[in-house]
Amino acid sequence: MKLSVSPLPLGSNYYRGNTPKSLFFAVFMAVTMVLSSSFVSMGQQHPRLKIVSPAADSSMIDTSIAYFRGVADPSGMLFLNGTEVKIYRTGVFAAPLYLQNGINELEICHVVDTDTLRKRMVMVHEKPAPPQPTAGFAIEYARILPGGELWLQPGDHLQVEMKATPGMQAYFYKDIPLYEVDASEAGVAGIYRGEYTVQPSDTLANKRIPFYLRDNATKKNVTLDSREQVTFLTQHHTLTGLTTGDQAPLFYGLGTDRLGGARMGHLDNGVKLEVTGKWQDMYRVRLSEQMQAYIPANNLRLQKGVHFRPHSITGSWAVYTDTVNDYVAIGLNERLPYTSIQQQDPTRIVVDVYGAVSNSNWITQKDGLLAIQNVWYEQVSKDIFRIYIELKEKQLWGYEIGYEGSRLVIRVKPQPPVLDLRQLTVAVDAGHGGSNRGAMGMTGVLEKDLNLSMALKLKKALDRAGASVIMTRETDKPFNNGERLKWIKQQNPDILVSIHCNASGNPMVQGASTYYRHQPYRPVSQHIYAEMRKLGLADFGNVGGFNFTLNSPTEFPSVLVEVAFLSNPEDEERLLDTKFHDEVAGSIVAGLQRFLREVDQLSAVSYRKSAIGN
After folding, report:
1. What share of the chain is helix, strand, coil (3-state, %, to 5)?
2. With 80 as the cut, is the pLDDT of residue 384 above it?
3. CB 519, CB 395: distance < 8 Å
4. CB 499 within 8 A of CB 474
5. pTM of the prediction?
6. pLDDT at residue number 425
7. What is the rounded CA–CA span in Å between residue 5 and residue 121?
8. Are 304 and 326 a contacting pair, CB within 8 Å?
9. What pLDDT sits at residue 489?
10. Do residues 388 and 380 make contact, with C-beta atoms less than 8 angstroms apart?
11. Is 427 in contact with 493 (CB distance < 8 Å)?
12. What is the DSSP letter of 189?
């Protein structure tokens, strides 16, 4: 139910947006004092009522939507400004508040049998004050974009911004002009921006950039240095580094969110990279003439002295099987960076090796390959060598890229010979654990505990279906996601299912969702999602390209199941029901079985087409 909250007029002093602020605050404080004391109880005992949001009897908020949330006696009835708010069996309630500009009165009434508890609260919605120009003759701030420690090479652009007194002459670095941005675009007068292209003759090593403001009328000057330090990479040789760890991440750019930036992939240990810049704690690296990437500074060890740009010619290929997996091995002179993608119709693994030039004059394919149909290559540019691995089956079951010495080896998993849970190993991950509690519901229940309960139910359901099951945790123990993934890879499962509960700052958001990172692994997430929706959960969606650690591996199909929103009263009520945990486990097993049936049907169709073709 949508809840509309209308402010109650408070006489002639009611704030409409044009009342002087001093008068407005006086009225606000007076009303607050009156309403905060209006806490009336009828009967012997107060009914239980805990209001979490708004957090105080009087509060100010700069957004037009807020939320009325808390816990109340579920045997009673709750009203907000005369409109009933549903109390779930858990006692949790939530409703949106649509605030008008100014003072909004909330009259709350909680009735349990003959007991009535009344409470009044005040919320003041005031739009944020617009930014103001710099007062006096001064530089308010001067900064380098995008901020933090910065390494640039010749040809890069040094971009800067300064906020200062409007209408002045402004400069930075070597008296390079700064130009004032139109106030309608910047939101306030006095924003100056400038750009400089780094030259080979520039020499800066961990230096701050000076900014200057000049008033030509009064001949006054003021100077301020940037907080950030800048280095120009104008050395006469290539700067290189070697990756550390066996899963060094490569990022497309500097963008980020709560899960980190979008990733190109991961690199093996000891891969050589050319460093062309640095932004805060991220090195920029050159992959090819047209491609660059970013890598965390703690995943790259800079090489001392003179080292040449990563480069190699390719040698002969070997394509073979060990009766468990298939392998493609390509000789190189040194460990070069690589990325991979997956293609469908036909199913292929495509690997780009950067800095490699073909000298491969033969490709030996051994008999008895399990997964690989064919392999070939293409020199797509002078410094990108592209490897194509075409598979026999429609469904990709996993692959891994790494080095043996300087030889690049791609391990490809074949499709399981029997597509039945009784013949498969399923890894089940109960999200969070130990001190990593995850989200918390209004009842105080912790996500880590719900995840574990549902994961254990899933294990039992998979056991009944005959699957082999490995668990990342069966107790409330901490397990870092990086170490968790490393352990799962060592177990080499056929499929990974990670179970979590979702959460949002908006308590009205609800529903089930499943997540995948790589396109070939979408089908398993789709089938599980379809089964989850049969439980009557709202449609939050099937989400692709998801940058979650346990969705990242290419070694096996994986799916993250966000069962429901712990922050939503209705979903929380269901999550607290252990019978629902059984239903979730049953739905996931049914989704896995649907996925396997579909793959089996695709394999049968593919086999018939192949037989006709032969």
Report:
1. 20, 40, 40
2. yes
3. no
4. no
5. 0.89
6. 98
7. 12
8. no
9. 96
10. no
11. yes
12. T
**Number of neighbours of residue 8 by Cβ within 10 angstroms:** 14
> How does DSSP classify residue 99?
P
**Above 50 in pLDDT, residue 231?**
yes
C-alpha span between 496 and 398 (Å, rounded): 12
- pLDDT tens, position by position, 50-90: 999 999 999 999 999 999 999 999 999 999 999 999 999 99
Q: Are strands 539-543 and 272-279 parallel, antiparallel or unpaired?
A: unpaired
Nearest to 423 by CA among 197, 284, 599, 190: 599
Cβ proximity of 153 and 233 under 8 Å = yes
Q: Are strands 220-232 and 150-152 parallel, antiparallel or unpaired?
A: parallel
As a whole number of angstroms, the distance between CA 507 and CA 566 comes to 9
Q: Which residues of 109-120 are buried (b: 16+ CB within 10 A; e: fewer)?
A: bbbbeebbbebb
pLDDT tens per residue, range 233-287: 988 889 999 999 888 999 999 988 778 889 999 999 999 999 999 999 999 999 9
Count of CB atoms situated within 10 Å of the CB of 65 = 12
Question: What is the residue-averaged pLDDT of the chain?
Answer: 91
* Separation CA 500–CA 567 (nearest Å): 13
Beta strands in 291-383, from DSSP E residues, in sequence order: 292-296, 300-302, 312-313, 317-321, 326-330, 338-343, 348-354, 356-357, 363-365, 372-381
List the end-to-end C-alpha distance of the chain, in Å, as a whole number: 63
| The two structure tokens encoding residue 72 | 């109340």
Residue in this structure with the two tokens 């030889």, named with its chain if needed? 407
What is the DSSP code string of 104-158?
EEEEEEEEETTEEEEEEEEEEE-PPPPP-PPPSS-EEEEEEES-SSEEE-TT-EE
Cα separation, 88 vs 78, whole angstroms: 11
H helix runs in 146-282, sequence order: 183-186
Query: Look-up: residue for tokens 């007991």?
Result: 115
Residue indicated by tokens 């994961």: 455
| Residue in the block written with tokens 């890069």 | 156
Is the Cα dihedral 569, 573, 574, 576 positive or negative? positive
d(CA 5, CA 107): 10
Separation between Cα atoms, residue 172 and residue 163, nearest integer Å: 13
Phi and psi (nearest 5°) for 580?
-65, -35
Residues with Cβ within 8 Å of 512's Cβ and at least 6 positions away in sequence, in order, are 529, 532, 533, 535, 537, 538, 539, 540, 561, 562, 563, 564
